[in-house]
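task queued by scheduler; priority normal; single chain, no ligands, no partner chains; default sampling; output format set to structure tokens
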Amino acid sequence: HHQQLVLPAFGAMVFYETLLMVHGKFPANETRLLLREASRLVVERDGALFRILDLGWRHTAQPVRKKGVGHVFYGRWYSMTWGGPPTVPQELKDTFLHNTGVLRHITLKIPTPNKMYNHRSTYYPILSPSQRITPPMTHHVPMYDVREK
């Protein structure tokens, strides 16, 4: 006999990070609407939205092809950190798939809090002048003695 697994009525909260890329021709107000829609989807299913980060405009390594949009090399990235029941990622995926502005999206489960996205400044601490291993960056000085006379 197999024992039946009984899940709690409210479901377990799992932590996720969703990254999405919106193409440059997509209007800003529609992008806001899209993020609001994604947030609503999470919160309505007893989830919690922790943060939305605007990661800025980035170039892609290869052209991203999307019907009705064309070939895109450039887009604006957003990161959403949230928690919710395990059914929500699929619903978010469906929302993003049927949106013409979203070129790329991925939802990853966050196994432990230290696996969350950290802003780059945490990787490269600013060193004081006494700790620096290289001289401060200076402007190029033309070398007149090398030029033809």
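post-processing summary
- The radius of gyration is 23 Å.
- The longest helix spans residues 28-44.
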